[in-house]
Design a protein that fits this description.
Layout: H1 3-25, E1 30-37, E2 52-58, E3 66-72, H2 73-83, H3 98-123, E4 133-137, H4 140-146, E5 152-160, E6 163-171, H5 173-186, H6 202-216, E7 223-226, E8 256-260, E9 263-272, E10 278-285, E11 288-289, E12 300-301
Antiparallel strand pairs: 1-5, 2-3, 2-4, 3-6, 5-6, 7-8, 8-9, 9-10, 10-11, 10-12
Helix pairs in contact: 1-3, 1-5, 2-3, 3-6
């Protein structure tokens, strides 16, 4: 297997993992583009649309390189709105609020964990990464100067919420050697230019997808329960005194909604555990009522 074929397999696997995370964050708003091996003479951040938000992680395996996910500032705001269950912002402002930055950082945590999992599946061993770092860039040259380049790289493009995004993988020589060896042992013949697996590797490709799906199951997601909502003028919020009672739009005995990554996933009732902690007894999950559940599906979330 050549270096390019190994890199294309890595890029295709990682792009699939990132797409799955993005689809969970922004359902029906994700379009996958192409996967390519970076030309050493062309910077990975050329033609970058700015202002841009970039989230990066570095490998902590004693080698240089890492993953950088770049999105437009408008795209970052739209992803954040989707995660928070809010409509997409109508204005064209590019400055992100604290809440939007927090949501983007959480999305990046999940995407980078997925990218690391995909890399680990291709390498045949777990890949450790450093905590994600978020940066704002006003020019492509700023992005190019921000990251230490590795000997190899791949780029996968996406369009999320109508905005262009890209994942740049900066791949060290050590990873290429491991990938080539691991893929040769699997008997994979080649990877085509669009990331599809070539003949002779169908069984191995299926095994890899299964391994990737299992790895993605371990990625942590944001889960919260919503008691209710209300609206009030922005100017009133900082003036509310301690002890102020804020009325919500639900009664005390109404079901509580459970959200996963900003999407309503289930509803149920609040209960108090034996340890004195609040938990949610699920009554409806993804359209299934409590009476339709099997014992294996029934449970509580605390």
């Amino acid at each position: 297997m050549t270096t390019r074929e190994a890199l294309m397999r890595l890029g295709a696997s990682t792009a699939e993992a990132i797409a799955k995370v993005l689809e969970s964050l922004c359902p029906d708003q994700v379009e996958r583009g192409d996967v390519s091996v970076l030309n050493p003479d062309t910077g990975p951040f050329a033609t970058l649309e700015v202002p841009a938000v970039a989230v990066s992680v570095a490998y902590v395996d004693g080698v240089t390189g890492g993953n950088v996910f770049v999105m437009t500032a408008t795209g970052a705001r739209r992803i954040a709105a989707s995660m928070m269950g809010m409509p997409a912002p109508e204005d064209s402002g590019t400055e992100l609020s604290v809440l939007e930055l927090s949501a983007v950082a959480e999305a990046a945590n999940q995407m980078m964990a997925a990218a690391a999992a995909a890399t680990g599946v291709v390498l045949g061993q777990e890949v450790e990464i450093a905590p994600p770092e978020t940066r704002l860039f006003s020019s492509s040259s700023e992005a190019a100067d921000a990251y230490e380049l590795a000997p190899h790289g791949t780029r996968a493009t996406f369009r999320v919420c109508g905005e262009a995004c890209r994942l740049v993988q900066l791949v060290p020589n050590a990873f290429v050697v491991r990938m080539t060896r691991a893929l040769d042992e699997m008997g994979v013949e080649h990877v085509s230019g669009d990331g599809a697996h070539g003949s002779g590797g169908d069984g191995e490709a299926i095994d890899e997808r299964v391994a990737l799906d299992e790895a993605l199951r371990d990625i942590r997601v944001r889960v919260w329960a919503e008691l209710g909502r209300t609206r009030l003028p922005l100017g009133d919020a900082p003036e509310m005194p301690t002890g102020h009672v804020l009325e919500l739009d639900r009664k005390a005995d109404e079901p509580v909604d459970l959200y996963v990554n900003g999407l309503r996933f289930a509803s149920g009732t609040l209960v108090l555990t034996d340890d004195g902690e609040w938990a949610l007894r699920l009554a409806e999950v993804a359209g299934h009522t409590e009476s339709e559940k099997t014992p294996e599906k029934e449970g509580m979330v605390s």
